[in-house]
Specification:
The complex is a heterotrimer of chains A (776), B (330) and C (162). Chain A has 776 residues and is α+β, with helices and mostly antiparallel strands. Chain A contains 19 helices and 27 strands. With 330 residues, chain B is an alpha+beta fold. Classes of the chains: A alpha+beta (776), B alpha+beta (330), C alpha+beta (162).
């Protein structure tokens, strides 16, 4: 274990930074082709309706309109659902959310395309929107997908059954119970969704754009166009943020754009404006939860009952796997002898909920972590002690009845967070801190996070890497994972450098292109460094197997005495007499050595029993504890987050500044989720908060002034060089830590996020009693 | 985002020329100064002028004259940034500076003007949406529709006043000079506004706001407090402006309290003036006035933050503003 | 069509524009200066921030026809505002790279223009001034901490302390 204070490390400059600070980086909207057309979507104004008739005659007749496509014009399969095949590219019968796509237009200017879309006349039979997840779960409720075999609106269902609940409640000295709620969250990446599809002279489609998952896009485009995968080439452009929002949704929009390009045989560009992007793209699943937790006098957990209902929206998209993650993480990283977890994904007439950094875990974390604090409060214990008492230790069974591999770091994250945050000196019992207008509070949240896709995604949990050593010694790396800002372009060359013994300046990354490698799976689930990194180690190993014998021969030594590092090779006994990597590459070239290798890494399989929830669930985990310090203004209900202490077991910190960047960004997004980001809608489910002035995300004024990142390094069993995930662990505990800190400040539990100023103040006042006075 | 719809842009060099251009084009024409509210609204087809009369090149609109002792006149085209840096204003009218510096963002304050802010369109959750969105709910009363979605039985539009500087000007007793085809007229800032989300001001169609006339600041202090979620970007969800003159013995000689961001028009709490004038400030009086602010805040569910919360914040903000000016602990 | 003459990054340009063209449209489409980004087109995100006669504005809300005779600086011209070596970046750009203040990069051109403008006006801003100057530029990746650090570092370097 070691911490990495910033002062002691070298500056690692991101290879993509220079282009980004000079304005030269090329994003999808910057791509221009001659004879390019512009796409527009004919959106349903209704959340739920039956399409009787689409009349595109007027739109088609407009000068400059090159194509208007309806479902009938799709040459391939009208299906883009990534897990369940319930989502058409263009609807033919039912529209299921506001903005559902009824037809597509390509025209020679964006404005004309938009006008033509407006001119498409659609006759709807308007139906009552079904927006309440709990009601939609009831039998005999109107069906959002009547075409399915199922006679209910259930989209996904997971459960865990462990131990004996009756015994658990009997053993408990205290039982706490709560109804909890979490809101939707919008990604608000700065770059709206955009792509360009170009039909190539050889009959292929070239799809470029802003995306996380080129292979998902390839599959969706192939499905709707009827082309084989080999004729769909997907290339990622510089991508202006994703956070899960560009995981599956690009498949929808890029496949529609591809349909138009194919139909007109010209390049077609599609870009969403900000309001469209908010209206039409996925959100974090809003949930309603019920938790009941039993514990002994000393804080030892005896039983947890959890029920989590997630709003899937109109189509399944990723709901089954999001809710899987909620299920597995519903009881936190604790020893729970008896547990009963039920999660439900439910269809509603909203835009689909999908991937958002954390992927169902932040919601579950809010559930379990605020309950841990309720347990502590009920027993008059320090919540940090309650966490330490229950934290999983090596060999302990998690709630899914399997031991988590290498969880030694978990307890340490709690201990180090306690120490670094000044918890022992500054924590006070709930509501027992400062009195008067401003109340100070501290809150803690501890998490585990299953790295990569886990049991339901194992079938696509493999990745490749292609390494090519050029004769001048420069190294080209191709992988299947995308740079979204998270730092893949920086981290992976560092792994290459370490694996081959070169410097990172030797390494150049090729753009992500489906032509380079077979399907490497999605860039999600904080898996890119682990998956691509392992594949790089495999490829580097193959190259070294070919290069080391030559190196040893050239240096006149034994191969097992040969050392290659920092671009030099030498025999260990004689480091002064070295040869450069460049010389080795040239010699290898002249000796016809095969200087390219494809590495491949398959994630170890994991299991999950659908009836009992017994399973290993994920092949490895990351651990983190965050402590938030807040100040609540009881007059206004405004919360100021003053400090975050974030302790992560990252396994191995390859690029510490990158980890800090992930953590600081995660804290900001998590604070927004906890306090500000309230996605509001009207009674029929139309989103009201579409832009930066109405959807309230943190500005520079709301930045948390002090975010301390501490890296613990307990090597992971399967991560390359011991790496564990950090991208999502950075956000998962944040909102829970803030909620616990607020509860600690005012002595009232927080049962709903976002805990906006008005909700907090009204709750505070109704608990404190208005008492006839207007103000405190 | 949609491009701006086509229009003719006219660039008069003088107020007289601007007035005659407005007259020539009648209802098809619209004035634009900084454009920070006009252009987004044109993109969303909330405004559909055929002719824009741009005031950027009318030099007289950017002048600031006078002194805090004798009173200052501010050209309507002075930018919000300039307001926060102009010596005459900084020294005498802190309410104006406090009001201007909390509007939107640095970029928009560099473009937006005092006149534009005073006349900025009222806002509503159901109105500040794209054309397509508004169409999907069959539009609202303020533009193209007939229903007010905030209160479907309402006979009038309930859109909310969103100018930060209007309550400030009302609290200072500022007067506004308009120039129109019929000549000039000067009115109290308070008389510019109407409690109607559509017809929210009394400016006549051909008129141009030329100047804001601040009375002498001698003996006065002023402040502005704004409720919003973030410390940047946000329109006021409540704005409280107070102008106060105290006598040598500490008694309140004159006071004006104005509230914005709730209701369709900013309003003066006139009873507060009656209660406080001629009295020594006391906790009891401040509380009494604060409770009036609660009663006179008619917040509706048409912007961010729920109405009851905004209503409850009114006395908090009035109390804080008064205490601040009186040098009492907050 | 209207013929407009103005200066972009120190070079005089003459372009034909429609009344409804914004400065952002003209920079990106007519002048090929693609560094200024469109994130909202309604003046709210700050990604298209440029300097207009030295002041930061959102180019999506400026009519091209109105910049006649004005001087415009975009992200592409920021480096030449600093009298560094030929081809060198502006210290603010350098600092953004050095401290890792760049992630997805989409907000960065506007952010840097705002930061450069701040340091021109106030070479050693305090924390509040720094935050306020960047309050019109959203970033969703970094939480702003490293961006503040970069601007402080640039301020030091420009003051000769570093």
């Amino acid at each position: 274990m070691s911490a990495n204070p910033p002062a002691q490390r070298d500056i690692v400059r991101r290879p993509d930074a220079r282009a980004k600070v000079t304005g030269k980086a090329v994003y999808a909207a910057d791509l221009i082709r001659s004879s390019m057309l512009f796409a527009s979507i004919v959106e349903s104004p209704h959340p739920f309706a039956r399409v009787r008739h689409v009349d595109a005659a007027d739109a088609r007749a407009m000068d400059g309109v090159e194509a208007v496509l309806t479902a009938a014009d799709i040459p391939g399969r009208n299906q883009i659902g990534v897990i369940q095949k319930d989502q058409p590219a263009i609807v033919s019968d039912w529209v299921r959310h506001p903005g559902d796509c009824v037809a597509l237009v390509a025209a020679d200017s964006p404005d004309l395309a938009h006008r033509a879309a407006q001119a498409v006349r659609v006759d709807y039979e308007v139906l009552e929107p079904q927006l309440d997840t709990l009601k939609n779960l009831e039998r005999n409720h109107p069906l959002i997908h009547p075409e399915r075999d199922q006679r209910d609106n259930l989209c996904s269902r997971h459960k865990i059954r462990r131990g004996d609940m009756e015994a658990g409640w009997r053993e408990a000295d205290v039982v706490v119970e709560a109804d909890l709620e979490t809101g939707a969250q919008e990604h608000m990446y700065l770059e709206p969704m955009a792509c360009l599809v170009t039909p190539e002279p050889d009959g292929r489609l070239r799809v470029e754009g802003s995306m996380q998952c080129p292979y998902y896009v390839q599959a969706a485009v192939a499905s709707v166009t009827g082309l084989p995968f080999s004729k769909v080439r997907v290339i990622q452009g510089t991508t202006g943020g994703g956070f899960g929002g560009k995981e599956d949704t690009p498949s929808e929009f890029f496949s529609r754009c591809a349909l138009l390009a194919q139909a007109v045989d010209r390049p077609v560009k599609l870009f969403l404006d900000r309001e469209q992007d908010v209206r039409l793209t996925s959100k974090r699943h809003p949930t309603r939860m019920h938790y009941r937790v039993g514990a002994k006098q000393d804080g030892t957990l005896t039983a947890i009952e959890a029920r989590i209902v997630g709003d899937a929206g109109a189509y399944a998209t990723l709901t089954p796997v999001v809710m899987y993650r909620s299920t597995v993480h519903a009881c936190g990283p604790y020893r729970v002898p008896n547990a009963c977890v039920d999660t439900f994904g439910v269809y509603t007439n909203r835009v689909p909920s999908g991937a958002f950094r954390g992927f169902g875990a932040p919601q579950a974390c809010f559930g379990i972590e605020t309950m841990m604090d309720r347990v502590a409060t009920a027993l008059q214990l320090d919540p940090c002690e309650v966490r330490l008492r229950n934290a999983l230790r090596p060999g302990d069974e998690a709630v899914t009845s399997h031991a988590l591999p290498s969880c030694d770091g978990l307890e340490d994250t709690i201990r180090v967070a306690r120490e670094r945050s000044g918890w022992s000196q500054n924590w006070h019992p709930p509501g027992a801190g400062s009195t008067g207008r401003y109340r100070d509070g501290m809150g803690m949240a501890t998490i585990h996070y299953g790295n990569s896709l886990g049991s339901p995604g194992w079938y696509l949990d493999a990745s490749g890497a292609h390494l090519q050593v050029n004769r001048d010694g420069s190294v080209a790396l191709a992988i299947g994972h995308t740079e979204l800002g998270q730092g893949v372009l920086t981290v992976l060359p560092l792994i290459v450098a370490q694996a081959l013994g070169v410097t990172r300046e030797h390494v150049t990354m090729r753009p992500v292109d489906t032509d380079n490698l077979p399907d490497c799976g999605p860039t999600v689930a904080s898996r890119a460094t682990i998956m691509s990194g392992n594949a790089i180690l495999d490829a580097a190993g193959q190259l070294l197997d070919r290069l080391r014998p030559l190196g040893a021969k050239l240096l006149d030594g034994e191969e097992d005495e040969l050392q290659i590092e920092e671009g030099k090779l030498y025999i260990r006994s004689d480091p002064e007499n070295f040869m450069t990597w460049e010389e080795l590459a040239e010699e290898a070239f002249l000796a016809n050595v095969h200087l390219a290798a494809v590495g491949w890494w398959v994630a170890p399989p994991s299991t999950f029993d659908s009836e009992t929830g017994v399973g290993t669930c994920y092949f490895q985990y990351a651990y983190a504890t965050h402590v938030a310090r807040v100040q609540v203004d009881t007059w206004t209900g405004k919360v100021r987050v003053e400090k975050f202490t974030c302790v992560h077991d990252v396994g191995r910190a390859i690029y510490p500044a990158g980890i800090e960047g992930q953590v600081e960004g995660g804290v900001s997004q998590g604070v927004g989720y906890a306090l500000l980001e309230d996605l509001r809608e009207n009674p029929s489910g139309h989103i009201l908060t579409h832009n930066f002035s109405t959807y309230i995300l943190p500005s520079a004024m709301e930045a948390v002034p002090d975010v301390e990142t501490v890296c613990l390094e307990y090597p992971a069993p399967h991560g390359p060089l011991g790496v564990r995930s950090v991208g999502e662990p950075a956000i998962i505990p944040v909102a829970s830590a803030v909620a616990c800190a607020i509860a600690n400040a005012i002595g009232l539990p927080v049962d709903r996020i976002p805990c906006t100023a008005e909700r907090l103040r009204l709750a505070w006042r109704s608990a404190a009693g208005e008492g006839g006075e207007i103000e405190a | 985002m949609l491009r701006l719809p086509p229009f003719r842009y006219l660039s008069p060099r003088s107020l007289e020329e601007a007035v005659s251009m407005l007259a020539d084009h009648g209802p098809e024409a619209m004035l634009v100064a900084g454009g920070t509210d006009v252009y987004p609204k044109m993109r969303r087809r909330q405004f559909e002028p055929k002719v824009l009369v741009g005031l950027a090149r009318v030099g007289s609109l950017r002048e600031v004259r006078g002194t805090p002792t004798e009173g200052v006149s501010i050209g309507a085209g002075v930018t919000l940034t300039q307001l926060t840096r102009q010596a005459e204003i900084v020294t005498g009218y802190s309410g104006v500076v406090e009001g201007a510096e909390v509007i939107s963002t640095p970029q928009l304050r560099n473009m937006g003007t005092i006149g534009g802010n005073l006349l900025v369109d009222t806002r509503c959750t159901y109105y500040d949406q794209t054309y397509q969105w508004r169409k999907s709910i069959d539009f609202c009363m303020k533009k193209e529709g007939s229903t007010c979605w905030v209160a479907p039985g309402s006979p009038r539009c309930l859109a909310v006043t969103s100018t930060d500087l209007a309550p400030v000007m009302m609290s200072l007793g500022a007067r506004l000079r308009f120039v129109g085809p019929e000549g000039e007229r000067v009115l109290d800032a308070a008389d510019l506004y109407r409690e109607d989300g559509i017809h929210y001001h009394t400016r006549q169609p051909g008129e141009i706001l030329a100047e804001i006339l601040l009375p002498s600041a001698e003996g006065w202090s002023s402040t502005y407090r704004k409720l919003r979620r973030r410390e940047a970007f946000d329109f006021p969800l409540l704005g409280v402006a107070v102008g106060l003159r105290t006598g040598a013995g500490g008694e309140i000689e004159d006071v004006r309290i104005a509230i914005g961001g709730v209701g369709s028009a900013p309003q003066l709490i006139e009873e507060a003036t009656e209660i406080l004038c001629g009295k020594q400030p006391s906790e009891e009086l401040i509380e009494k006035v604060a409770s009036m602010a609660f009663r006179s805040s008619k917040a509706l569910d048409n912007t961010d933050l729920i109405p009851i919360y905004r209503k409850k914040m009114a006395p908090v903000f009035v109390r804080r503003a008064l205490r601040g000016l009186l040098g009492l602990s907050p | 069509m209207i013929l407009v003459s103005f200066e972009v990054n120190g070079t005089a340009v003459r372009v034909e524009v429609e009344p409804q063209d914004t400065l952002l449209d003209v920079l990106r489409q007519s002048l090929g200066l693609l560094g200024s980004k469109e994130g909202c087109a309604e003046g709210e995100c700050g990604a298209c921030t440029v300097l207009l006669d030295g002041l930061p504005v959102t180019a999506c809300l400026v009519l091209a026809a109105k910049v006649e005779g004005c001087s415009v600086t975009t992200i592409e011209g920021v480096a030449s505002m600093w009298k560094g070596e030929e081809g060198a970046l502006h210290p603010v750009q350098e600092a953004f790279i050095d401290v890792g203040a760049v992630q997805c990069g989409y907000c960065i051109p506007g952010m840097i223009v705002s930061a450069v403008s701040l340091l021109e006006r106030d070479p050693s801003p305090d924390e509040k001034t720094l935050r306020q100057a960047l309050a019109g530029n959203f970033c969703r990746c970094t939480g702003y901490n490293k961006i503040f650090e970069a601007v402080r570092r640039a301020a030091n370097r420009m003051g000769g302390d570093l």
